[in-house]
Amino acid sequence: MMKMKFQKWIAALISFVMIGIIFSMLPMTSLTASAICCRKDGFDKSKYTLTGNMAEDVATIAKSQKGRTGSQLGYTEAWCDEFVADCIENAGADSSIVGHGGTVADFESVMRKKGAVQVSSPQTGDLVFFTYSHVEIVTKVENGTVYCAGGNNGGTGNYKTNYCAGERKLYATPRLYLRPNYKRIPVDKVPTWANLDKNQIWYDLKDTIVLTPSSDTATDYWISITKDGNSVVNEHINGAYSIAANSLGIGEYHTWISAVNSAGSIDSNHLDFSVVGAATYLNVYASKNTYSLKETVSIHVDTICAKGQVIGIDKIGSGRVITEGCESTYTIEANKLGIGKYSAYFSVYNGSGGIDTKRVEFSIYDKLISPTPTITTLSSSSLKLTWKAEPNATSYRIDRRKSGADAYETIATTNQTTYTDTGLEANTKYWYRVYAVAGSDKSSEKNSVSGTTYTLTSPTPTISTISSSSLKLTWTAAANATSYRIDRRKAGDGTAYETIATTNQTTYTDTGLEANTKYWYRVYAVADYKSSEKNSVSGITDKINNKCSVTWNDNYDGGSTSGTILFIGEKFGIYANSGSNRSGYTFDGWYTEASGGTKITSDTKVPNVARLVLYAHWTPNKYTVHFNANGGSCSKLSAPIQYRDTYGQLPEAQREGYRFLGWYTLKDKGVLVTSDTVFLLTKDQTLYAHWEKINLLGDLSQDNKITLIDLILLQKYLLRQASLTADQSTLADLNEDGIINVIDLMLLKRTLLNP
C-alpha cells in the first residue's frame, strides 16, 4: 500500500512539472497580441439562453463555446481578452461597463476605468488574470475551488492555443480577480457613507459574530478586525460577514469596513465588540436574612456576561429542595419552603462556561423569641447588657425602667448582641427588657433583668521592703470589688505607670526589682469596671551583695543544670562560651529565656541580681543525602537535610523496563524512606533506588524493547516453526485473552509501526 501511494505521489509531481514546462513554451503571440476588433457576432448563440442575471449569463456564454476556434469566432490574432469582452457584450452589457484593449494589460486598465473593481474572493462572472498575460471568466466557486473558462487559453489537452476551453478547475496561478460593473454603479461617485452593525452586544465562544456593512454606492467592502493593535481579519466581503467567536478567541476587538466602488472608497464608523470568557457575577444576595412564613423570599444575582442562570436552594440538614432555571431575581413564598435555615446560590453561564456564586443564607421562622440578657455594672453611671443571638432576629429593641418608675420606655435599637447604657444615676437599680425584631415582627416575650450602679473606691496600700529585689503591697478590701489592678512606676522613668499585675487578694509582692531603687505603686479596685481614684505609695529596695548565683540549664532532655557563683558587674568571660554536647545539634550560646530571650556573651556583665538562670540554645546540624539510581537515572544527585527534619519531597528515578519502588537505605533490602521519614543520622547518607522488572507485552526476545526479532518469533510460532517458553507465551498474548493467534500478531505489527 505504501509503495502504491508513493508511486501516485511521484506521478502527480511529474505532471505538475510538465504543466510548468508547457506554460513556459507557449508562443509569445498568444501572450501579448490582441485581436483587432470585436467579433461578438461570431458566437454560436444556439448553445446558450440568457436569464437576465448578467454575471451568470457571462459564465454560461464562456462555457457554451467550448471547442470553437478563433477562426470560427472571427479572431485572427491572440484573442483571450477579446473573447472575454465579447462574452460580456453578448450577455447584454454595453460600452458603459465593457471595453476593448490592446494587450491583456490594456484590457485590464480599460475595465477598471469602466467600473470593474478588484476583489479577493471570486464569484461567478468575475474575471481572472493570470501571472502570465492571459485572462478568463470565473464560471463557479465550489467548496473553495475556482472554475473558469476562456478563449485562446494556451492550456493542456484538447484546449490548446486558438481554441475555446470549456469549464475546468483553475489551472495556473491567478494574479488578480476583477468584478465588472454589472450593477452599472456610476464610476464618478465615491461612496459618501459607510456603516457597520453587529448582531449582539458581546459574544461567547459558542456564538457566531455577524457584522453587516451598508453604504450608498459601494460595489463591495473590505473588513478589518484588530486585537491589541494586531490585525486578525482583513478580507473582502460582499455582504454580511460571519465568523465563529471561538476562531477569534476571548478578547476585545476593534473593527471597521471600507466601502469601495470604481471611483474610490470611504471607511465606516469604528465598531467594538468583545468575545468573553465564562459568565461570572458581581454580587448575590437575599432581600432579607430572615423571613416569616407570611413573606416572600427574594434572592438576586448581578451577573456579568451571563445568558442564563439556575438557582439551587438547600435546606440545611435536609438537602436540596429547589433546582430550576430562573431570571436574575428569584422569588418564592416562604410557606412553600417551610420553617428552617436555607442556603442558596446561582449557577450563571454562557456559551464559554459558567460559575457558581457564593452562597447566601437565610432562615424562615414561625415566631421570634425574646433573648434573656445578662447585666454587668461598668461604672457608677453605666450598665452593660449581653444576650445570645436570636437566629431569626435582624435587630433588637431595648426597653428600660428605673427602680420606682411604673412603665418601661424604649431607649435603643441595635443589631448587636450587647448594649451599654450610659448616663445613669449612681447607686441606682434599673430594669431592662430585650425584644427580638425581624422586619415588622417583634417578639412578644418579656424577659426582664435588673442591674445596679455603684461607686468603687480605690484602696490605699501600705508598702514594705522584703529584700534588695522585692517590695510588698498590702491594702484593705474595697466594697463591691472583685479584683485589684496594680500599676508601677520606677523612679527616674518619668511619670508614666505600667500595669504589672491583677489579683483578687489584698496583698501583692513585686519581685525582680533593682537593688536600692525607689518604686511608686497605684492599686485600683475592679468589679465590672475599674475605680478612677489613684492613691499612690512608694518603697525602696534594699542594697544587694556583690555576688550572683548563676544556674546553667542545658535546655534538653529534662534540662539538667549546674551552678556557678559570679561577681556582679564582672564579665561572664569563658563561662558564656562553654556548653555541653548534644547529638545532632551545635551549641548556639546561653540565653536569659528557654526560648528567645537575650544572648549572654563573654563581654556581657553579670546583672545586679542575687540569682540568675541561663538556658542553652541549640541549632540543628545540616547534612547531605545522596541519591544512587542503582542502575537507573535520576536528575537530582543530592539534597541538604537538617537533623530531625523530614526528608520532604524525594526525586523520581527512571529505568527502562523497570518500575521504581522507592528509596531505600541499602543497595539491596534496607529500610524504605518516604517524604515523612525523620532524618536521625549525624552524618551524610546515601539512598538507593529499588526496582521491579516490567514484563513488556510483545517482547518475546526479552530485551526490554519491541523489535522485528519479536515479530519474527511470533510469526514462526504461529506457523509452527518454533516453540515458546512459558514466559514467552505470556508476553505473546498481547490482547491478554488467553489465546495466541493472528490478532496478537497484528497488534505486534501495529506496535512496531506506531511505537
Polypeptide structure, described:
By secondary structure, this protein is mostly beta strands. It has eleven helices and 50 strands. The protein has a six-stranded antiparallel β-sheet. β34 (483-490) and β35 form a beta hairpin. α3 (54-64) crosses α5 and α9 runs antiparallel to α11. Mean pLDDT is 86; it is low at 1-38.
Notable features of this structure?
single chain, 755 residues, mainly beta, 6-stranded antiparallel sheet, 6-stranded mixed sheet, 11 helices, disordered N terminus
Provide a concise account of the structure shown.
The protein is mainly beta and 755 residues long. Helices cover 13% and strands 40% of the residues. The strands form 12 sheets. Strands 1-6-2-3-4-5 form a 6-stranded antiparallel beta sheet. Strands 16, 18, 19, 21, 22 and 23 form a 6-stranded mixed beta sheet that branches.
